[in-house]
Amino acid sequence: MMRLHFNENPYGLSPDIMSAALEEARELDLQFYPDQEAPELRRALAEYAGVSEDQLMISNGSDDMIQLLFLAHMHEVERVVIPVPTFGMYRVLGEIMGLEIVEIPLTEDFELDVAGLSRAIDQAPSVVVICHPNNPTGNYFSAADIDSICATDARLIAVDEAYYEFGGCSMVDATSRDPRVVVIRTLSKAFGVAALRIGYLVGHPDKVAEIDSVRQPFNLSAVSQAMACTVVQNADIQLETVDELLRGREMMRRDLEGIPGLTTLSSEANFFLVRVDQGTFGMDAGRIAAELKERGILIRHFPNLPEFLRVTVGLPEQSAALQDALNDLRRQVD
User: Among residues 240, 192, 210, which one has the least CA distance to residue 73?
Assistant: First the structure.
């Protein structure tokens, strides 16, 4: 199956970095528990993020970090406020924690409804989660709008920067000014090591210590720690694939724009939305996704975005295969 649905980096690790990472893993004594503080990886990530080590903690993927955020604040918050559409795990994990989920729709232009979010925050003690750039819409929200959310009485403002490397805009500096602001990142996207399950959080040292207090010991395997450390220490080499993906994104958008009935939206991530005009293309977005799956191509269709498809940026040959499949589907309904 062609994986254009999970926003992974199709280039993976460079052969040299993979070899070095595997060599580090071979040196491990697997009969012993891993260091629960992951000091070498923590040091490497702190250097990469430009923060001190006491401003950073590591989790078993960013989903785990989101759950830790909710768990650490259960005694002081009642609800999770999220702009939608966005990453679905915020709702899932909030519900698991027994928190009320309040969803505030984005505007027609996929911008924040600041007034709606502020009202929801004012009604009860809240955690706010903002995906930046947003998944699945691919856009950054305006700095002024985010500042307005930070000016509310929210108990915690979590900014999910899973796709930071593709757009370069970050709220990390805000974590030093406001202890309520934390930034969540991952190695699953630009770094190309989703299988290692490494997420990390940047925040004020006191906030980091508070969240870290509810983390289970030994939450990261020794293998993941060792291999991820090698990857992060070679970030300058590994992240060269980001430039390839950004070029590939614009190439895919251009190719799909040439198909009648499809319009692509600009994006600051390694994916983009495609709007489907059913009347022109000949079938709706949901059917397109299903038909492509039958042909071995996986893309995403969301019920709350019925006219859209989300496409992960793939390799050039994957882009060509997707274009050919879509053209073939359209010919079938002519």
Answer: 210
Across the strands, what pairs with 131? 160
Where do the CATH 3.40.640.10 domains begin and end in the chain?
15-237
Contacts of residue 77, defined as CB under 8 A and 6 or more positions apart, other chains included, come to 99, 124, 125, 126, 127, 155, 156
Pick the CATH number of 15-237 from 3.40.640.10, 3.30.70.1730, 3.40.50.2000, 3.30.70.260: 3.40.640.10
- Provide the token pair at 326: 């879509």
Model pLDDT, residue 1: 93
Q: pTM for the full model?
A: 0.96
Q: What is the DSSP pairing of strand 199-202 with strand 262-264?
A: unpaired
Largest CA distance in the chain: 63
**Would you state the pLDDT for residue 332?**
86
pLDDT digits 0-9 by tens, 221-258? 999 999 999 999 999 999 999 999 999 999 999 999 99
Is 182 in contact with 190 (CB distance < 8 Å)? Answer: no
Rounded to an integer, what is the distance from CA 210 to the centroid of its chain? 23
- Provide the mean pLDDT of the chain: 97
CATH of domain 239-333: 3.90.1150.10
